[in-house]
Amino acid sequence: MSLKAFHLIFVIASIFLGLGVGGWGVHEYQSSGEMAPLVIGLAFFAMGIGLFFYGRQMLKKTKDIGYLTLAGIFFLEQNANACAACFGESDAPMAEGMNAGIFTLLIVVGGTLTGIAGFFIFIIRRSMQLANSNLEEDSSTI
């Protein structure tokens, strides 16, 4: 993919993002009456319109560079070949490597989630101990 096509994709995506967020801001202003969404919406509308003119200028400036390859990428049939694991050869070295990678990721993600859950359990138990100690101090002073 050429730099022009890459740039054009992101300019178009940014235009759609700007117009979409702008529309959301105006709609949010109409439903709630708050000014902040309207200001954000108008700023993003201006960004989308500005990017439209920037994109046109960029296309004029780079007219000698072919951008029909971008259309070919989107409109031509894209064929994908399955890997050995998906294709059905489950005893191939590639499938064994993929299974080892999946197992490693499961261990890493599982360990991380276990650590996070353990941290929250620690926080809950610690707060319960603090609450119990505060109750005991209050009952002894009465």
Q: What can be said about this structure in brief?
A:
By secondary structure, the protein is mainly α. It contains five helices and no strands.
Explain what the structure shows:
With 142 residues, the chain is mainly alpha-helical. It has a domain at 3-75. It is built from 5 helices and no strands. Helix 1 (3-32) runs antiparallel to helix 2. The termini are far apart. The model has no long low-confidence stretch (mean pLDDT 80).
Blueprint of the fold:
Blueprint: H1 3-32, H2 35-61, H3 68-75, H4 84-87, H5 93-141
List keywords for this structure.
mainly alpha; 142 residues; 83% helix; single chain; flat
Number of helices: 5
Distance between the termini: 78 Å
Main sheet attributes: strand count, strand direction, barrel closure: none
Radius of gyration over C-alpha positions, nearest whole angstrom: 28 Å
Coarse morphology: flat
Return residue spans where pLDDT drops below 50 for at least 5 consecutive residues.
none
